[in-house]
């Protein structure tokens, strides 16, 4: 009650009531609409991601590959399950750590909390982002790093500006120092952005992708 213009997230089957003196402008945006993304069976490469749990620092894996199927099965009580298989190409499957707690939702430009990777490593890194919902014009998602938790953070990787849902992979050379402390930062013109970020920091020299 008493709130003004903004973004409001409703649960499935939820309702919202508006009291106004001047008719508002209203736009609906689907959030977590996996069916819309998967049912098209795109012929181009897609990013497939698995985030184990919903904690920063938890394991995750990602790959770039072809989506091979979208197969429904129904059990004896009517539950519908859809199976998706992605065959990795290019870089294979990469395991790393979550820099977001599973999906993270920002309602404005945000500097995330730091993650302590335990040490700095001098052998580069690869990272993936999955943007699953966007309300607004654009959002830029980047990974920053610093030598201390409260130090000066600089950009390690920038995934660029997204104007709609999508995914991307970024990397830095295997001679790049990745500092111990990492943050995920968003900028742009948006009122809601939901996304997940994974990074694979190379722990040994000679990684080639």
Describe this structure in words.
- By secondary structure, this protein is mainly beta.
- The chain has one domain (34-201): Jelly Rolls (Sandwich), CATH 2.60.120.
- It is built from one helix and 13 strands; from the N terminus they run H-E-E-E-E-E-E-E-E-E-E-E-E-E.
- The strands form two sheets. Strands 1, 2, 5, 6, 7, 8, 9, 10, 11, 12 and 13 form an eleven-stranded antiparallel sheet that branches. Strands 3-4 form a two-stranded antiparallel sheet.
- A hairpin with a 5-residue loop joins strand 3 and strand 4.
- The longest helix is centred in the first third of the chain and has 5 residues, at 34-38.
Helices and strands, with pairings:
Layout: H1 34-38, E1 46-51, E2 59-67, E3 71-74, E4 80-83, E5 86-88, E6 94-98, E7 104-106, E8 110-111, E9 115-116, E10 125-146, E11 154-162, E12 166-172, E13 181-201
Antiparallel strand pairs: 1-2, 2-5, 2-6, 3-4, 6-13, 7-13, 8-13, 9-13, 10-11, 10-12, 10-13
């Amino acid at each position: 009650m008493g709130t003004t213009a903004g973004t409001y997230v409703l649960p499935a089957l939820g309702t919202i009531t508006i009291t106004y003196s001047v008719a508002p402008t209203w736009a609906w945006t689907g959030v977590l609409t996996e069916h819309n993304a998967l049912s098209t069976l795109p012929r181009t490469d897609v990013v497939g991601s698995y985030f184990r749990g919903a904690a920063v620092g938890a394991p995750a894996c990602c790959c770039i590959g072809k989506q091979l199927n979208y197969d429904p099965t129904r059990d004896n009580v009517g539950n519908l399950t859809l199976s998706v298989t992605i065959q990795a190409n290019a870089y294979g499957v990469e395991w790393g750590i979550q820099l977001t707690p599973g999906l993270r939702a920002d309602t404005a430009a945000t500097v995330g909390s730091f993650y302590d990777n335990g040490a700095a490593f001098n052998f580069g890194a690869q990272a993936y982002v999955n943007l699953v919902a966007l309300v607004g014009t654009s959002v830029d998602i980047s990974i920053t790093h610093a030598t201390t938790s409260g130090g000066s953070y600089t950009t390690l990787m920038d995934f660029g500006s997204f104007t709609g849902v999508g995914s991307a992979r970024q990397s830095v050379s295997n001679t790049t120092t990745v500092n111990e402390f990492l943050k995920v930062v968003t900028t742009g013109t948006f009122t809601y952005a939901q996304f997940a970020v994974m990074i694979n920091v190379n722990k040994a020299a000679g990684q080639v992708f």
